[in-house]
Amino acid sequence: MKFVNPYILFALSTVIIPIIIHLFNFKRFKKIFFSNVQFLIAYKEETQKKSKLKHILILISRILTIFFLVLAFAQPYIPQKNQKINTSGKLISIYIDNSFSMEALSTKGTLLDQAKKKAIEIISAYNASDLFQLLTNNFDGKHQSFYSKEEFLEQLNDVSISSYSRKISEIIERQKDAAAAYNSKKQTSFVISDFQKSVTDIENLKHDTSLNVNLIPLFPQKNDNIYIDSCWFQTPAFYKNSQVN
To answer: In whole angstroms, what is the distance from residue 145 CA to residue 96 CA?
Structure first.
């Protein structure tokens, strides 16, 4: 089993919080004095056993809640096989930028819609024996493997705008990691994005002859910003439906 976000597993250390609360009971009891407690002894023993069991069950439930919550954010996935997978076809990895900036309009709809059309055009140029990987900013577990054309198109329909944003160097490394399980020397990468300056770190890309990287930029419609620099009126007061000079 591998994790999409393994660094989140460090949050498992927070399970110590409910353990500390259990060991150091912060609840303060108030002493009440009775003249005769002879008839309360049996009831007291039974209550202590139930209370101890209740605290243990609460502790276990809190630990399990933290464990599964961290596990969900780490996004575990099971690789297809540990050994190399032989494939006679090519490996094509296509990254589609689905950040907020891809909501901008182009002459053919939004940039995200245009990116999806580009992806369809790319895979239509390859053979049926080739395998394809779809990668987005979400880094979903299902996007860590390569699939057939039909499976790729099914995943492509589910791509939508996301709040995540990834750097280009991070995308390329993710594409190479996904291809590491396949015994193929033919890997091609396509990066479809509007290449915002904040994520385009081309200088951090490592030279790798086994990966052919193709950058496909998308451009939104150019909208000139029109604004008013200053405005003033000749008269200090105005009447309804009067002309303003």
So the answer is: 15
Measured at the CA of 109, the angle between CA 108 and CA 110, to 5 degrees, comes to 125
184 near 93, Cβ under 8 Å?
no
Residue 50 in any domain: the answer is yes
Which runs of consecutive H residues, i.e. helices, occur in 24-146? 41-74, 111-124
- How many domains, in total, are found in the chain? 2
**pLDDT (tens digit, 9 = 90+) per residue, 76-122?**
766 555 444 445 578 999 999 999 999 988 888 899 999 999 999 99
Q: Are 126 and 44 contained in the same domain?
A: no
For residue 222, being part of any structural domain is answered with no
What sign does the CA torsion over 126, 193, 102, 74 have?
positive
**Distance (Å, rounded) from C-alpha 170 to C-alpha 77?**
19
Residues 7-52 have pLDDT tens digits of: 677 888 888 888 887 777 655 556 666 666 665 555 555 566 677 7
* Mean pLDDT taken over the chain: 80
At position 138, the amino acid (one-letter code) is N
Cα 50-56-62 angle, rounded to 5 deg: 135
CA distance 37 to 39: 6
